[in-house]
Specification:
single chain; Carbamate kinase; 37% helix
Length: 239
């Protein structure tokens, strides 16, 4: 495998399927199958999943809600998604643990780095819920932080598009996709595929970021086998 240990970041919106809200069981099953196959190949997998399919903190704050309260609600939404993904994974026979950055001891483990590392070494999938546990930080940033803490070889961001473009391909048909881009180019061009704070953190810690379309069946496995899928954000030497 190209990457023996990965941190996979998934958006909550990816769980809605063809709907506008909540969790689509068929979409969840397909996602779980893809991750399960990678796990069975021996890859150690940590996951951070967003909560935008249930509640997004920034949207709540924009409507007049206190930002801290809104972000806390968003963190709880990620816990719901994490538990749902855990259930789907374990139905496929993959041992999975949910660890939360805020204590919810009757539902999931508290985040303890050493325990999480041990789970990964035992080939258990670990889902990191509740973001960083603090408001004002995105789940992209939480994913970058966990990638560093878990000594992941790469941060994989699964989205609904096939990489990073020079502009929004929906509004700008002439936009072209980057195969590789440096951290600084991403930040300086103010691209939006991933939170810039997360990109800066990864730059400072030399963590490559691969942005790809997770909805295309098999893409995760293709990346793990070394194929060029989506867009790689890294240092010039990563090209």
């Amino acid at each position: 495998m190209r990457y023996p240990r990965i941190l996979l970041k998934l958006s909550g919106e990816a769980l809605v399927g063809e709907g506008n809200y909540g969790i689509d069981p068929e979409t969840m099953r397909m996602m779980a199958e893809e991750i399960a196959e990678a796990s069975r190949m021996g890859v150690e997998i940590g996951i951070v999943i967003g909560g935008g399919n249930i509640f997004r903190g920034l949207k709540g704050a924009a409507s007049g809600m206190d930002r801290v309260t809104a972000d806390q609600m968003g963190m709880l939404a990620t816990v719901i998604n994490s538990i749902a993904l855990q259930d789907a994974m374990e139905k496929l026979g993959v041992q999975t643990r949910v660890q939360t950055a805020i204590p919810i001891d009757t539902i999931a483990e508290r985040f303890i780095r050493r325990r999480a590392m041990r789970h990964l070494e035992k080939k258990r999938v670990v889902i990191f819920a509740a973001g960083t546990g603090s408001p004002f930080f995105t789940t992209d940033t939480a994913a970058a932080l966990r990638a560093k803490e878990m000594k992941a070889d790469v941060l994989l961001k699964g989205t609904k598009v096939d990489g990073i473009y020079t502009a929004d391909p929906v509004t700008t048909p002439s936009a072209t996709r980057y195969e590789t881009i440096t951290y600084m180019q991403f930040v300086e061009q103010r691209l939006k595929a991933i939170d810039s704070t997360a990109v800066t953190f990864c730059m400072e810690n030399s963590i490559p970021i691969q942005v790809f379309n997770f909805k295309v069946r098999g893409n995760l496995l293709r990346i793990l086998r070394g194929e060029t899928i989506g867009t790689l954000i890294g240092n010039p030497s990563s090209k």
